[in-house]
Amino acid sequence: MPALALVDTPVDAFSGDCSGVFIPPSPNSSPASPDWSPSLSSSLYRIDGWGAPYFTANSSGNISVRPHGSNTMPHQHIDLTKVVKKATDPKSSGGLALQLPLVVRFPDVLKNRLESLQSAFEFAIQTQGYESRYQGVYPVKCNQDRFIIEDIVEFGSSFRFGLEAGSKPEILLAMSCLCKGNPDAFLVCNGFKDSEYVSLALLGRKLELNTVIVLEQEEELDLVIHLSEKMKVRPVIGLRAKLRTKHSGHFGSTSGEKGKFGLTTVQIIRVVKKLREVGMLDCLQLLHFHIGSQIPSTALLSDGVSEAAQLYCELVRLGARMEVIDIGGGLGIDYDGSKSGETDLSVAYSLEEYAAAVVASVRFVCDQKSVKHPVICSESGRAIVSHHSVLIFEAVSAGKQHETTPSDLQFLLEGYAEEARGVYESLYGAVMRGDRESCLFYVDQLKQRCVEEFKDGSLSIEQLAGVDGLCEWVTKEIGASDPVLTYNVNLSVFTSIPDFWGIDQLFPIVPIHKLDQRPVARGILSDLTCDSDGKINKFIGGESSLPLHELVNNGYYLGMFLGGAYEEALGGVHNLFGGPSVVRVLQDGPDGFAVTRAMMGQSSADVLRAMQHEPELMFQTLKHRAEELSSVLKSGGDKGNDKLVASCLARSFNNMPYLSVGTSTNALTAAINNLAVCYRDEVAVGDGGGCGKNGKWSYSVD
């Protein structure tokens, strides 16, 4: 029976007579083509599809941000790699010493999104002869970050842009922020309501804020009537209607007759009747509806808006003093760049086409019914904030394709059962014939037989490894091995991209540099968590892997784009990995930018505290333990080093939970080797250990 031998001379194992011996060829890897360019990378990663008009691949092979969209001048482009360098470089080099992962926010992009939405509606209103205005609101649930909300209120003040809230904390932040906004801006109060919620909304009117209480359930009307009389406030009331129109797919499940929110036609009639009975029908001024997020086409949009416009006109006929039609959310973005509208990842329209369809549908119905054109309001969150935020993270290592060595192929037939030997002989014959399908069949059979023998204790681990090495080599030589590598990234999917795990939402993920180089591999991304679901193995375009470059010592940075809505609000602390670092970046001068705010991500102490632990007490407990052990060591002649241990512990409580890439593979070792660099507050706390006024841990080493 033929045996296995190895020689160094390259020989094709699938041609000619090899005298009964398997001879693996030397690897013949073709060199990467020099004919590569950033424009080819743009096509490969669809950057010009999902990224326009805000992201592009520049001539240096890096991702550039165009902060003012299509109005951005060439000298105003911001190289994303320069932002990352500024954020992560040590302070001694002029950097901010932030740790990855990092969220980079571009307020200029946010402003451009607001202005583009407003301009689209204003153009549609002007060209179609619509006799009212557009006045939008931002639903704060999409991203409640203070600076995002404050920016939206400031940027939208000139055109009365307002906010939408769906809970009591959201009402409080919206009321506070709108005190600095346009007094005519809407504060739309959605969501389930109790007496405290309704009281807050009514208080808003006393504070001369333009609050509108939208009835999501019929029972809420009694609360509004009772509390408005008690507080002596004349409310402005809206109601949410359950439309028949809905779209298929995940996001459409929140709409239609069986939707979570809204009133049926029967309930609407009862609300109108009750308001008339108590003399408050004039308070009913707004109709709200929601077809569903990521509306895929203007045809579906027009259908839903037309249905709602009919309801609006009927409410006018019934005597309500209607003024506003709130079309809700649904303005989608093109995550995959296809502009097809065929999946939840894409929409087949532009901002201008969306606005034109809405205005045309409302105008047509109202003109038919001889009803005054209402103010058009929308609650577009995803379309406003998604583009302005980029998540940057680093690939720290990559699994390599197995290179079979002679020691891996020491497959000797002695010691194997007769059945396994027979399968081996059949595999050998299939290889000699060049029969690919039979090779795969016998590889599988041989591995199964030998695994069974190993489980029975009749094979050693060396023998099993010999079988595995042989089978891997055969599989690779016939072109059947899996070419996809696993890139390990310094990130938690559950914290930073929860919608990928929760609802299979895909986001564009692209290297932010090396786009002038041809990718050398395809890979999936595996995060830091101890969870098998902590990986990204689905990508836009229906791909199960991503073209990636070789890892080198100076870092390989990836960006997740269009994730400014929901991801930060939904992210948890699985495995106690907290939120990322954040920088706020404005375009500033020719080819320049300014970081106007920088914040380190959550520390280990922060995430421990979020789960009801007491980091200060934990630190003192461990410090005391170190002191006890140190005193024992000292009595035995060893000096010990309890203060050194305490310093390391303090540093670890203070640091982010993510890997400290580029400093050391061991954070504690790094702390020990760099004791001159301490996290120290201006005010000393306690007896040398604890947490200062800025939440930073410090420990003094005498």
Keywords:
disordered N terminus; disordered C terminus; 22 helices; ten-stranded mixed β-sheet; alpha/beta; 702 residues; eight-stranded parallel β-sheet
* Chain oligomer state: single chain
| Helical fraction | 25-40%
Biggest sheet details? 10 strands, mixed
- What is the number of helices? 22
Terminal residue distance: 75 Å
Shape: globular
Question: Whole-number radius of gyration?
Answer: 32 Å
Our estimate of the beta-strand percent is 5-15%
How would you state the average pLDDT, rounded?
85
What class do helices, strands and sheet pairing give?
alpha/beta
**SS elements, strand count:** 23
Low-pLDDT residue spans:
1-33, 663-702
Question: What's the SSE blueprint?
Answer:
Blueprint: H1 38-45, H2 47-50, E1 55-57, E2 63-65, E3 78-79, H3 80-88, E4 102-105, H4 107-128, E5 137-139, H5 146-155, E6 162-165, H6 168-178, E7 186-189, H7 195-206, E8 210-215, H8 220-231, E9 237-240, H9 265-277, E10 284-288, H10 298-317, E11 324-326, H11 351-369, E12 375-377, H12 382-385, E13 389-398, H13 418-433, H14 436-456, H15 461-477, E14 484-489, H16 493-496, H17 498-503, E15 509-511, E16 521-526, E17 535-536, E18 546-548, E19 556-560, H18 567-570, E20 581-587, E21 593-599, H19 604-610, H20 615-635, H21 642-654, H22 667-673, E22 689-691, E23 697-699
Parallel strand pairs: 4-20, 5-6, 6-7, 7-8, 8-9, 9-10, 10-11, 11-12, 14-16
Antiparallel strand pairs: 1-2, 2-3, 4-13, 13-14, 13-19, 15-19, 16-17, 16-18, 20-21, 22-23
Helix pairs in contact: 4-5, 4-11, 5-6, 6-7, 7-8, 10-11, 13-14, 14-15, 20-21, 21-22
